[in-house]
Amino acid sequence: MMLEQAARQLEALGNPTRLSIYRILVRAGAEGVPVGHIQEKLGIPASTLSHHCKRLIHTGLVSQERHGTTLICRTVYPAMEALLGFLSDECCVDGSLPPGVAMPQTLQDA
Amino acid sequence: MMLEQAARQLEALGNPTRLSIYRILVRAGAEGVPVGHIQEKLGIPASTLSHHCKRLIHTGLVSQERHGTTLICRTVYPAMEALLGFLSDECCVDGSLPPGVAMPQTLQDA
DNA sequence: AAGAAATTTCGAAGAATGTCGAAATAGGGC
DNA sequence: GCCCTATTTCGACATTCTTCGAAATTTCTT
Asked: Domain count of chain B?
C-alpha cells in the first residue's frame, strides 16, 4: 500500500505550520536548518515546533542530525521525489494526461 | 498566502480514503466518475463518501456535474498542476535542486 | 402526482489534532 | 560536577476529523 504512505506524507504537509517548516528546509538545501532557526523564523513555541518536526520526521520527509546541542533538520529529497512521483504517476499530470483528458476547465476557490 | 491554499489541498489529499477517491478520478480522466461508481469501488457508506467528496470539492481539487440523478465527479487538472507546481517551485525538486544540495541520503520509515 | 433512484444533509459519538507551558533531557564548557 | 543552551517530552484542553444511520432532496419515469 504505497497509497497509505503517500497519504501520511501528504497529511504531514497539509498543515500550514508544517508546510512552512518544510519549505524552509527545502530552501535551505543540504546544509539543513537548526530547530532554533526555524523557531525564530516562525515565531512559535518550541514545544509546538518540536511536535510538528517530529511529525514530519516520522513520515520520512525530514531527517535530523545532532551537532552538539543543536539539532539540524534536513529535507529528505528522495522521499519528496517519491511523493511527487506518486502524484504524477498514480495520479498523472506531467503533460501526459490520462486517457480521455481534453485539457480541463479552470476552477479556484476555498 | 498561496501556502495556505496548498496546505488545504494537501490536507485534503492526506487521507487514505480521499486519496483513493482522487486517484480514481484522475485515472478516469475527463469522463469523470459518478459518485455511485466510486462507492462501489471503495465499498464505503454513501454518507461518508459524500462527505469526503465535498471536502475535495471545497479545496478546488475536484468538481461535480449533474447528469440526471447522478452526480459526476472530475479532477480539476489545473488545480492539481498548480499544487504540484507549488511543491516543485516553492519547494523545488524537478532536478534543479536548491543551492547546496548534493544528492541526498536515503530514508524510509513510518 | 406518486414512486423509485442517486446523493446529500443532519445529528451524534469517538478518535485524532494543534497548541502551549512546565518540567525533563542531552551536550558542552568551566 | 555544575550551569547554561538547545530541544524534547509530558500532560491538558479546545477544536476539528471521521464515520455512519436516518431522514431529506433532487430528478426522472410512469
From this structure: 1
Interface probe for B, chosen from A63, A101, A103 (most Cβ of B below 10 Å), is: A101
Nearest nucleotide by C1' position to the B48 CA atom: D19
- For an interface test with B, give the residue of A3, A4, A11 to mutate (most B CBs within 10 A): A11
Task: List, for chain A, all residue ranges whose pLDDT scores fall below the cut of 70.
Answer: 1, 90-110
Domain that holds residue B38: 32-89
Sign of CA dihedral B25, A103, B9, A83: positive
B76 neighbors B62 (Cβ within 8 angstroms): yes
* 3-state SS class at A87: helix
Does residue B79 form part of some domain?
Answer: yes
Which pLDDT does position B73 carry in this prediction? 98
* Choice among A46-55, B1-10, B34-43, B81-90 with the minimum mean pLDDT: B81-90
Q: Whole-number Å distance, CA B68 to C1' D26?
A: 9
Residues on chain A touching B12 (C-beta within 8 angstroms): 14
Specify the CATH number for the domain of residue B61: 1.10.10.10
Q: Is residue A37 part of a domain?
A: yes
pLDDT of B49-95, one tens digit each?
999 999 999 999 999 999 999 999 999 999 999 999 899 876 554 44
Q: Which residue is nearest to nucleotide C9 (CA to C1')?
A: B47
Give the per-residue pLDDT at A26. Answer: 94
